[in-house]
Design goal:
The protein is 76% helix and 3% strand. It is mainly alpha-helical. The protein has a three-stranded antiparallel beta sheet. Helix 2 packs antiparallel against helix 3, helix 3 packs parallel to helix 14 and helix 12 packs parallel to helix 14. The longest helix has 68 residues. The chain starts with a helix and ends with a helix. The relative contact order is 0.12.
Length: 457
């Protein structure tokens, strides 16, 4: 009996005395990366916008206050989207595409024109840049299409061309604003996602070739775009004309050196560099924080992109194709937009009006980028919860199986006990047994049952 009780104690300790490992429902690293980029953005936007804000509004912190409000709105929007299950995006992505088309049409009809471009919808005190939600909605639709028509995309040309037709429609509406930068980002993300989905190589290279030819044609047939390209190739040929903005940006990069001039000590932000707190915020960051500051921002964005691709890969391994493709598209989107923004300010690419993700001034971009990060968090959350639920279901199945296995044995034991009791009753009717014998038989039956339960466990 001592051996039996020792065995039961060991089994109980093995099952219930394990140290509980802490589990986190969300990826804390991804949250910290996003908050770090936002914090850097607040500091640099405040520093870069003070001179122009003081001249235009009489308050050097005008744009800084607005940027802070945008960040609060972005965080609230991200928290709200984080509550939406991914099933919502899987079901509604076709309707989101119609919403994107409607927003782009509304911009052309009732949009507000700034600096010759009609890109904004004014809703009272709120101004929305329609191209930002259009990008996210299109990527959600593209991920859903690849799930619904995966075999067509990978096996025949018709399935490969269908999503490109939708892209060309959105590109046409964007070019009427005009907004070539957003078209380029959407095109790069589309071909990257089609390539990752398994499109044939000849289709992929043909699409890249046709896209490059289309971009060249758009540049050649628009005089202002052609001037941007020629000034990009040799900005010092006209440093006070077409190449003025780029030369001032290059001066900011040159003054930054390794560790910068110090926070707040930029000279180019004194209205020498136009759009210093929006499209060229990286130039001011490079001037004040130097190469080390630029490397830190690039490292954070690269880390976020790697996390997005890792989440997408994990989702595909777990059979969540829509979640995986959407994660891939967000990672490609962030990386390519960062490359275009920094490349334009550093003279590597022609100047384009694209913001630096989570850093540049701009409410629409900041809110949509935060929503994209929230979608990544939600995908990762559902993958973690799905794993826990699967584990729990497995443990429940094992418990049911063990219960079903032990039940016949228990029934057999009870039947044996019943037979023994009936035999004892019959024997008592024939001849009376001694009380000591009955007590020993009962103890033996109890010990036998305890031993059988221990063996079953």
């Amino acid at each position: 009996m001592m051996l039996t009780s020792t065995k039961l104690s060991a089994l109980f300790a093995a099952k219930h005395d394990k140290a509980q490992q802490p589990t986190y429902p969300y990826d804390a690293t991804l949250v910290l990366i996003a908050l770090a980029l936002m914090s850097i953005g607040v500091i640099i936007v405040t520093s870069a916008s003070m001179p122009v804000a003081d001249r235009l509004h009489g308050n050097p912190f005008h744009f800084a206050i607005r940027h802070g409000i945008y960040i609060v709105g972005a965080i609230l929007a991200a928290i709200a989207v984080l509550q939406l299950p991914m099933q919502f995006w899987r079901v509604t992505n076709p309707y989101l595409l119609f919403a994107a088309i409607g927003l782009l049409l509304a911009v052309l009809l009732i949009g507000r024109t700034v600096n010759g471009s009609t890109r904004w919808l004014a809703l009272g005190p709120i101004t929305i840049q329609a191209a930002e939600p259009a990008k996210l909605f299109f990527f959600a639709y593209l991920a859903g299409y690849l799930v619904r028509r995966y075999e067509e995309v990978t096996e025949n040309l018709k399935g490969f061309i269908k999503p490109l037709g939708v892209f060309f429609l959105l590109a046409l509406l964007l070019l009427l604003q005009p907004d070539l930068g957003t078209v380029v980002v959407m095109f790069a993300t589309t071909i990257g996602l089609l390539f990752l989905a398994g499109a044939r190589l000849w289709q992929f290279f043909a699409l890249v070739f046709v896209g490059l030819m289309a971009v060249v044609a758009l540049i050649v047939f628009e005089e202002y775009r052609l001037k941007r390209v020629t000034s990009f190739l040799d900005p010092w040929a006209d440093p006070f004309g077409a190449g003025y903005q780029l030369t001032q940006s290059l001066m900011a990069y040159g003054r930054g050196n390794w560790f910068g001039q110090g926070l707040g000590n930029s000279l180019q932000k004194l209205e020498f560099l136009p759009e210093a707190h929006t499209d060229f915020v990286m130039a001011i960051l490079a001037e004040e924080l130097g190469f080390v500051g630029v490397l830190a921002v690039l490292g954070l964005i690269l880390w976020m992109v790697i996390k997005a691709l890792h989440i997408g890969n994990h989702a595909l391994e777990r059979g969540r194709a829509f979640d995986g493709f959407l994660s891939y598209s967000i990672g490609i989107w962030f990386s390519f937009q960062t490359a275009v923004n920094i490349g334009a300010s550093a003279g590597i690419l022609p100047t384009k009006g694209l913001t630096l993700p989570l850093v540049s001034y701009g409410g629409s971009s900041l809110i949509i980028m935060s929503i994209a990060v929230a979608i990544l968090l939600r995908i990762d959350f559902e993958l973690r919860v799905d794993g826990v639920q699967a584990l729990n279901r497995g443990e429940k199945r094992k418990a049911k199986a063990s219960a079903s296995n032990t039940k016949p044995k228990a029934d057999a034991t009870s039947n044996a006990a019943a037979n023994a009791s009936s035999q004892a009753a019959s024997s008592t009717s024939v001849a009376k047994s001694k009380p000591e014998d009955e007590g020993k038989a009962g103890i033996k039956a109890i010990l036998a049952r305890v031993a059988e339960e221990a063996d079953n466990d």
